[in-house]
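FAQ: What does the model actually see?

It sees only this:
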Amino acid sequence: MAGYFERYVRRHLNALRLARWGVPACADHPGPIVIYCNHPAWWDAAVLILLAARLFPSRACYAPFDARMLETYKIFARMGAFAVDLESPRGAAQFLRAARRILGAPDRMLWITAQGRFADSRARPLDLRAGVARLPEIAPDALFVPLALEYAFWEERGGEAFAAFGTPVRGADLLALDRSARLARMEADLTATLDALSADVVSRDATRFTVLASGAKGIGGVYDLWRRLRAVFTGRRFEPGHRHEGDPVP
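And it is asked to produce this:
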């Protein structure tokens, strides 16, 4: 399924880019890992699946999913998604019960869109849901890692997806804080990671990122066929992209 979503991303986006400073350094953590992120777009699920497959291939990954949406996108249940009712108080109990079971094994990961709703990556405050701050009580041996996601259009026809992992924090260290302070700390860490990623996105400097997946460049169709033929007849190399990787930003 990761291969399917990689092909899907390549077909519909120009690239998935990981900030060079935001490469996770926690894959060898001996306990479970919790990745909590913002939730800016429909694309988040596909991006998280690719990040998990590329960066944490040896770990079993799970993620809470809106119960109503999981009925529509049943395919995600085959990849570790579990239903949570976001519209009733029982949803919190569902989430914590599933999280306790998942985080009980050291080789597992829990990926959470911690805002619980779609929100622009520039919106502040992030208003993370309180449930994410309960997880250190369940798994003090877990490592908690903020993940920033953002999308933008640069020079190509397709959009760009961007990701960056922040500084990990041990569950035991978070557990030393009361719940409100714990939630504030986690939100501050994710906000700082988002702000740093946004600065790189605004720069439009491709050298600040590693490309994890790259789609087809150019306009396509008859126009690109004409450009290709013109390049052949003039003895030049055909470059479908509007701007090449490494070129200076205009």
